[in-house]
């Protein structure tokens, strides 16, 4: 349910005693603070307002509470991360030319940070139940989100996804297209790697560059681990890597493609945290908090396995514990082992419960991977490298596009370097088109959970470009044609040709 507009910017709930950004009492248990205007304590006075809005809107829509409130000076974006646990983002509106965003893209940021948080820490509810006073969850949330926001900092400015990101889709994976022969080799490698764990059941995920090659995980766990791998583990994410290309990394786009700047003061929010560990807003410094999202903390060891010193250490020990994650589908805690060979990244997940002596057993598994799978790893990397078309492999001349398969959580898009050639007018028009599609998808969901809605929207932008969106059977296609003929028929034929050649006719109107 979307609501707009009301004048909510000057409302104060009178809760001046609670100065924590991440409140652990009441309905709004997790506060995701992004406003550049409010200092930390004042921003939390809006907690009561958020709680009231959520409660009020549920009276009229019990199954779909408030998603966004458009106030005069701010957008209030809500996301129910877990039952009765909400994350709230407050974004300051601005008259700057870059201040155009899509609400669902902002909610995607909240969804992503919560999914990553759960992957490393488990559900927020479990931490709250463990310590109802809130000190434990506050310390974990604050540290985790501050590290997450570091990827959105450009200089001293926090930048959010805006209209220049309209040809991207957060919460999806990008697959590498490979031939049959290479696919057989990859499957053989998967079996070889997993057999290195002996009789212990395990999972694996393989990436080439920043693209997914293979996974044995559930779709939700694949998305989480893929997102983390691209951000921190892939060859392009390591400190020694220098590259301008990636589907997900935010700090490597050119200045022309830079996303909207919120406020120069927002950078100070992060700086303040790192300088003020004794602040109540940062949680209790006595808690032992792992920081898996700290940038540039993973390095490649001599044996090819990645190592990091950012994980927790056991009490009384100076030796870092083995990295672990939680699987969303099964709730299992898994050891995280990452091997890298040139452009290939292999991730092996082993259940913690199956290995009583973790450090020693993991060392044995790593050694077996090196002994049994090294030749196969080198062969697969060579085959994928030969078949890889480079950073512009998925560029289609004359088209700027985004393909999304919502059922498989997979997307493919024009390379960012090609998207930056589009004019602002085209991208703004595409953002507005995507907002319309988001609204229609929400309406279809309200009308019935099983209702599939086919949709086509075409817009002639101010610069005479055609912006087109087609949705059918859980799949979405968004396209910008800046050099198309003036007629809609010409643009429609161009989409038909693209659909028939690259989408097996999925988006064809025939």
Describe it:
This protein is an alpha+beta fold and 510 residues long. It has 12 helices and 20 strands. It has a 5-stranded mixed beta sheet, with helices on one face. A 5-stranded antiparallel beta sheet has the order 9-8-15-14-13, with helices on both faces. It is globular.
Oligomerization: single chain
Derived from helix and strand composition plus strand pairing, the structural class reads: alpha+beta
The mean pLDDT is 80
Question: What general form does the structure show?
Answer: globular
Over all CA atoms, what is the radius of gyration? 23 Å
Instruction: Kindly state the number of beta strands.
Output: 20
Helix content: 25-40%
Strand residue percentage? 15-25%
Strand order of the largest sheet: 1-3-4-5-2
Distance between the termini: 34 Å
The residue ranges in which pLDDT falls below 50 over 5 or more consecutive positions are: 1-43, 242-267, 273-282, 314-318
Tell me about the largest β-sheet: 5 strands, mixed
User: What is the number of helices?
Assistant: 12
């Amino acid at each position: 349910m979307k609501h707009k507009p009301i004048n909510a910017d000057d409302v104060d709930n009178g809760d001046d005693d609670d100065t924590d950004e991440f409140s652990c009492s009441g309905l709004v248990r997790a506060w995701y603070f992004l406003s550049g205007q409010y200092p930390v304590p004042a921003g939390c006075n809006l907690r009561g307002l958020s709680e009231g809005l959520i409660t009020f809107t549920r009276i009229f829509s019990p199954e779909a509470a408030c998603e966004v409130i458009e106030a005069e000076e701010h957008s209030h974006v809500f996301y129910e991360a877990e039952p009765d646990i909400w994350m709230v983002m407050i974004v300051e509106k601005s008259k700057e030319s870059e201040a155009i965003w899509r609400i669902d893209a902002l909610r995607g940021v909240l969804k992503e940070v919560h999914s990553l948080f759960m992957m490393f820490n488990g559900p927020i509810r479990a931490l709250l139940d463990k310590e109802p006073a809130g000190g434990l969850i506050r310390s974990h949330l604050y540290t985790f989100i501050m590290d997450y926001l570091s990827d959105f900092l450009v200089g001293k400015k926090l930048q959010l996804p805006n209209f220049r990101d309209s040809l991207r889709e957060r919460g999806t994976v990008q697959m590498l297209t490979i031939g049959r022969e290479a696919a057989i080799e990859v499957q053989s490698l998967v079996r070889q790697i997993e057999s290195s764990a002996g009789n212990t059941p395990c999972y694996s995920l393989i990436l080439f560059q920043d693209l997914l090659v293979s996974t044995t995980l559930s779709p939700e766990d694949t998305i989480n681990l893929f997102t983390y791998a691209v951000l921190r583990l892939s060859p392009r994410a390591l400190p020694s890597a220098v590259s301008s290309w990636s589907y997900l990394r935010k700090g490597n786009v050119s200045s022309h493609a830079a996303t909207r700047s919120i406020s120069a003061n927002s950078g100070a929010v992060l700086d303040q945290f790192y300088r003020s560990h004794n602040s109540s807003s940062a949680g209790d410094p006595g808690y032992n908090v792992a920081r898996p999202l700290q940038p540039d903390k993973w390095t490649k060891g001599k044996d090819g396995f990645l190592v990091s010193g950012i994980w927790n250490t056991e009490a009384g020990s100076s030796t870092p514990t083995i990295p672990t994650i939680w699987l969303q589908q099964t709730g299992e805690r898994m050891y995280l082992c990452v091997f890298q060979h040139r452009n290939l990244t292999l991730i092996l997940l082993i259940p913690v419960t199956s290995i009583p002596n973790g450090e020693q057993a993991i060392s044995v598994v790593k050694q077996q991977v090196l002994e049994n799978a090294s030749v196969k790893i080198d062969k697969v990397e060579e085959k994928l490298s030969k078949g890889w078309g480079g950073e512009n492999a998925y560029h289609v001349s004359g088209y700027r596009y985004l393909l999304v398969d919502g059922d498989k959580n997979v997307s493919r898009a024009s390379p960012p370097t090609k998207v930056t050639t589009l004019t602002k007018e085209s991208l703004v028009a595409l953002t507005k088109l995507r907002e319309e599609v988001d609204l229609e998808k929400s309406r279809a969901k309200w009308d019935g959970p099983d209702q599939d809605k086919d949709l086509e929207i075409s817009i002639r932008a101010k610069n005479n470009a055609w912006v087109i969106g087609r949705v059918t059977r859980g799949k979405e296609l968004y396209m910008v044609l800046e050099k198309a003929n003036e007629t809609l028929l010409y643009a429609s034929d161009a989409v038909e040709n693209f659909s028939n050649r690259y989408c097996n006719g999925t988006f064809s109107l025939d």
